[in-house]
C-alpha cells in the first residue's frame, strides 16, 4: 500500500498492510524543536536549520529524511508553504539552540521574558525565561460585557487564534487563493502520504480563549442563553470559513482536523448532558458540512479523558479522535477498542508521553508500544501516534525506540 492508502484503509476500519504512522501530520503529533535538534544529531543526519513553525508550542518542521527514517504516512498541508529561505529568519530556542521562525513572527524581549504583540500592539502572549512555551496573557472578553457581534474581530487579540503558522500571511494577499490552491495541488501530486488539513473549528475552546476558562464555564452553567448566542454566532463564522477553505483545498486533502479539548486527566470537562445541550448539534453541523464539501474524513483533536462523550461524538459524525490520552481515567486502550473500535478510529494512544516516553528505558518503551499496538490495531481503526507532542526533554534514543517498535 501507499501511505495514503494505508491511512485511508485504517480509517475505513479495514486492516492495512501495516500500522499507519503519524508524526508531525498536525500540530499535536509533532516534536518540540529542542528535542528535534537532538534527534537529528543522534541519528547522524546532515546539519540543517531547525525551523519552528508553531512558536506557541515550539514545534519543529520535521524534515523529509526523518520522515523516511521512521516510515511516516502523513503530512500536514502547511508543509506545502514557506519552503523558501526568504520566509524564515533567525531566532533562538530556550536552551540556546539556534533556530528559524517564520518572518511574520516577531517576538520581542521584555525584561526576563519574550513577548508577542497583536497587530494592535497589545501583548497577547509571553514566554518567561526558563519556560519552554508561550502562554496566553490577554483574554478579549474577560472584562465587561462581551459583544458577541465582535467575536471574529477578537480572534486577532487572542494568542491561539492570532499567531499563525504556515501558510499564514502567505495566502492573505490578492493572489492568496491561487497560491493556496496551487500549493495544495503540488503537494498532492508530490507525495503519496495522507494529507491533513488543519481547520480548527473549536467551540468550547474559543469560548475559553476569549472569556478565559473559568468565566466560560460559569456562562455555560449559569447563563445558557448567553452561551447559546455565543456558540451559534461562532458556528456561523466557522461554517463560512469552512466552506471557503474546502472549496479551495478539499480535493487535495484526505483528513480535515478540527479541535476542541473536552477532557481532563480525571474525565470530561463537562457532563454528557451539557455536551449534548451546547456542542453536539453544532459539531454535527460542522462535520456534516465538511463531508458535503469534500471527500474527507473528520478527525477531532480532543485531549483528556472523554470516554463518556464518545457515543455522542460518534453519533455527531466523527471519524477519528486524537490523541487518545491513555493515561486518563477511562481511556485504557483495550476497553476503548472493545467498546468503540468498530465505530471510530483511534488516532493516537500509541505511546504514553506523560509517564513512559520521557522517563522509560528504550526497552520499556518498546514493550509499551507493542502492547498498545496489539490492543488497538486489529481490524483497522488505528493510526499510530504518541499521545500529543514529543516534549523538549525526551531523549532521542527513546524516540527512536518508539518508532522502531512500530516498524518491528
Protein described:
This protein has 408 residues and is α/β, with parallel strands linked by helices. Helices cover 38% and strands 15% of the residues. The protein has a single domain, classed as TIM Barrel (Alpha-Beta Barrel), CATH 3.20.20.210. The chain has helices at 3-11, 33-43, 64-69, 151-154, 159-162, 176-190, 204-211, 213-222, 224-249, 272-293, 310-315, 333-340, 362-376, 396-407; strands at residues 52-54, 59-60, 74-76, 88-92, 98-102, 108-109, 113-117, 123-128, 135-136, 194-200, 255-259, 263-264, 267-268, 297-301, 320-322, 345-347, 382-383. The strands form five sheets. A seven-stranded parallel β-sheet has the order 3-10-11-14-15-16-17. The chain has a four-stranded antiparallel β-sheet with strand order 6-7-8-9, with no helix packed on it. The mean pLDDT is 97.
Q: How are the strands of the biggest sheet laid out side by side?
A: 3-10-11-14-15-16-17
Largest sheet: 7 strands, parallel
Contiguous low-pLDDT stretches (5 residues minimum) are none
**What's the shape?**
globular
The helix count comes to 14
CATH class value: Alpha Beta
CATH architecture: Alpha-Beta Barrel
Give the rounded overall mean pLDDT. Answer: 97
Strand fraction: 15-25%
What is the CATH topology? Answer: TIM Barrel
- End-to-end Cα distance: 17 Å
Count of spatially separate domains: 1
What share of residues is helical?
25-40%
Number of strands: 17
Helix/sheet category: alpha/beta
| Radius of gyration from the alpha-carbon trace, in angstroms | 20 Å
Amino acid at each position: 500500500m501507499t501511505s495514503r492508502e494505508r491511512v485511508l484503509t485504517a480509517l475505513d476500519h479495514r486492516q492495512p498492510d501495516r500500522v499507519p504512522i503519524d508524526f508531525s501530520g498536525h500540530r499535536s503529533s509533532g516534536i518540540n524543536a529542542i528535542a528535534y535538534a537532538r534527534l537529528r544529531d543522534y541519528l547522524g543526519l546532515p546539519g540543517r536549520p531547525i525551523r519552528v513553525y508553531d512558536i506557541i508550542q515550539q514545534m519543529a518542521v520535521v524534515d523529509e529524511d526523518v520522515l523516511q527514517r521512521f516510515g511516516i504516512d502523513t503530512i500536514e498541508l502547511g508543509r506545502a508553504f514557506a519552503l523558501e529561505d526568504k520566509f524564515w529568519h533567525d531566532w533562538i530556542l530556550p536552551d540556546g539552540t539556534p533556530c528559524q521562525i517564520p518572518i511574520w513572527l516577531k517576538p520581542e524581549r521584555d525584561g526576563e521574558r519574550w513577548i508577542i504583540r497583536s497587530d494592535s500592539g497589545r501583548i497577547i502572549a509571553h514566554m518567561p525565561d526558563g519556560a519552554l512555551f508561550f502562554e496566553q496573557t490577554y483574554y478579549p472578553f474577560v472584562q465587561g460585557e462581551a459583544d458577541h457581534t465582535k467575536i471574529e474581530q477578537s480572534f486577532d487579540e487572542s494568542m491561539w487564534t492570532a499567531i499563525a503558522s504556515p501558510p499564514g500571511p502567505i495566502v492573505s494577499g490578492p493572489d492568496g487563493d491561487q497560491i493556496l490552491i496551487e500549493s495544495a495541488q503540488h503537494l498532492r501530486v508530490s507525495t503519496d502520504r495522507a494529507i491533513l488539513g488543519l481547520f480548527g473549528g473549536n467551540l468550547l475552546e474559543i469560548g475559553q480563549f476569549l472569556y478565559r476558562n473559568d468565566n466560560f464555564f460559569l456562562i455555560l452553567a449559569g447563563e445558557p442563553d448567553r452561551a447559546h448566542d455565543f456558540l451559534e454566532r461562532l458556528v456561523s463564522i466557522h461554517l463560512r470559513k469552512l466552506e471557503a477553505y474546502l472549496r479551495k483545498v478539499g480535493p487535495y486533502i484526505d483528513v480535515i482536523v478540527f479541535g476542541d479539548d473536552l477532557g481532563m486527566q480525571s474525565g470530561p470537562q463537562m457532563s454528557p448532558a451539557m455536551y449534548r445541550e451546547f456542542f453536539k448539534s453544532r459539531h454535527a453541523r460542522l462535520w456534516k458540512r465538511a463531508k458535503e464539501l469534500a471527500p474527507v474524513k473528520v478527525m477531532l483533536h480532543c485531549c483528556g479523558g472523554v470516554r463518556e462523550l464518545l457515543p455522542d461524538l460518534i453519533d455527531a459524525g466523527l471519524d477519528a479522535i486524537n490523541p487518545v490520552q491513555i493515561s486518563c481515567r477511562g481511556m485504557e486502550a483495550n476497553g476503548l477498542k472493545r467498546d468503540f473500535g468498530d465505530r471510530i478510529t483511534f488516532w493516537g494512544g500509541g505511546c504514553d508521553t506523560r509517564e513512559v516516553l520521557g522517563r522509560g528505558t528504550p526497552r520499556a518503551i518498546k514493550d509499551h508500544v507493542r502492547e498498545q499496538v496489539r490492543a488497538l490495531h486489529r481490524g483497522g481503526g488505528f493510526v499510530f501516534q504518541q499521545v500529543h507532542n514529543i516534549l523538549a526533554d525526551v531523549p532521542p534514543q527513546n524516540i527512536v525506540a518508539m518508532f522502531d517498535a512500530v516498524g518491528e
